[in-house]
UniProtKB/TrEMBL annotation:
This is Glycosyl hydrolase family 43. Keywords: Carbohydrate metabolism, Glycosidase, Hydrolase, Polysaccharide degradation, Xylan degradation. It holds the Pfam family Glyco_hydro_43. Belongs to the glycosyl hydrolase 43 family. The keyword Hydrolase applies. One of its GO terms (biological process) is xylan catabolic process. The record marks D169 as: Important for catalytic activity, responsible for pKa modulation of the active site Glu and correct orientation of both the proton donor and substrate. It comes from the Bacteria. GO terms for molecular function: hydrolase activity, hydrolyzing O-glycosyl compounds.
Length: 320
């Protein structure tokens, strides 16, 4: 009987300890609350958009200029016309419609209007873009169009001699001293200083030394804390290098957006936060020919390097 009593007491104590531990665990880890996550990517859903060129103009809004993919596209030849969008909260975007179409250009074929870039200079808004003369990727010119207002429409004013060839993917960048540079190229990145009229090169084009050999397309330049960031698409995601001059040489730093194969990006700072614009094919029947503009947060490390970005459905939250 004594042994039986001791055993009963021991079991009671063990059960008591188990219960206490369970209660303690419950107190330390209260029941998880299910938080509804809003999927804000892609940010444009009523039309297919790609190659977003994002900017903060003097009106305090975020503006982006995009190329357009046809809903039934099976190649890039049918891309025809650029659109302008604006926002004050990064989630709700106003579509200002088509701002330039191949029919507005006195040379070239229908379609073949690929990734644009934009700049505000000389009290006007400029759109620089690649367009094919005869309908193949090796005869692109860099056209220039201008508008008095950011929403366009833009009027064709010419094309830049000395910037021809494959699909170009131009990026225009104005430095703090007012000098303006153009970056372009496929497989071999090039750049040159532009004259202030943005219609002529001010020097002979030069190749860009970026510390690697994986460049494919989509040159992009931005500046942060006195450093120049040359970034691009390697065909398997976005990569970048840093330098002390818009000419380089640049020190290769690695990936920005390594998992997003079609990374044609632009970067802006708006209301104290940095944002990364890119296009994504994985939504609503998308494909590499039917793409959609998305946005993610971008963060710098203390040494100025960029933290890797991964495409998400959540995207960015509305600015209040």
């Amino acid at each position: 009987m004594k042994i039986k009593y001791i055993l009963i007491c021991a079991i009671t104590v063990l059960l008591s300890c188990k219960t206490n531990k369970k209660e303690a665990k419950t107190e330390e880890n209260p029941k998880e609350q299910v938080i509804e996550v809003t999927e804000n990517n892609p940010v444009i859903r009523h039309v297919r958009t790609a190659d977003p060129s994002a900017h903060i103009w003097k009106d305090g809004k975020v503006w982006m200029y995009t190329s357009g993919d046809a809903e039934d596209a099976v190649n890039y030849n049918t891309m025809d016309g650029y659109r302008a969008f604006s926002s004050t909260d990064m989630v709700n975007w106003t579509d200002h419609g088509q701002i330039l179409h191949s029919k507005d250009i006195p040379w070239g074929v229908p379609g073949w209007m690929w990734a644009p870039t934009a700049i505000y200079k000389n009290n006007k808004y400029y759109l620089l873009y690649p367009h094919s003369v005869k309908g193949n990727k090796d005869d692109m010119r860099c056209g220039v169009a201008v508008s008095d207002v950011p929403e366009g429409p833009f009027k064709y004013v010419g094309w830049i001699k000395g910037v021809e060839g494959q699909w170009l993917d131009p990026c225009v960048f104005e430095d703090d001293d007012g000098k303006t540079y153009l970056y372009w190229g496929v497989r071999e990145p090039k750049m040159a200083l532009l004259k202030d009229n943005l219609l002529e090169l001010a020097e002979t084009p030069r190749s860009i030394a970026y510390g690697a050999k994986n460049f494919f397309e989509a040159s992009y330049m931005h500046k942060y804390n006195g450093k120049y960031y040359y970034s691009y698409n390697a065909g398997l995601g976005g990569f970048y290098a840093m330098g002390d001059s818009p000419y380089g040489p640049f020190e290769y730093k690695g990936a920005i957006n390594p998992k997003q194969r079609q990374d044609h990006h632009s970067i802006v700072e708006y209301k104290g936060q940095h944002y990364f614009f890119y296009h994504w094919q994985g939504w609503n029947g998308g494909s590499k020919f039917r793409r959609n503009t998305c946005i993610e947060y971008l963060y710098y490390n203390e040494d100025g390097t960029i933290q890797e970005i991964y495409a998400t459905k959540e995207g960015v939250q509305k600015i209040k």
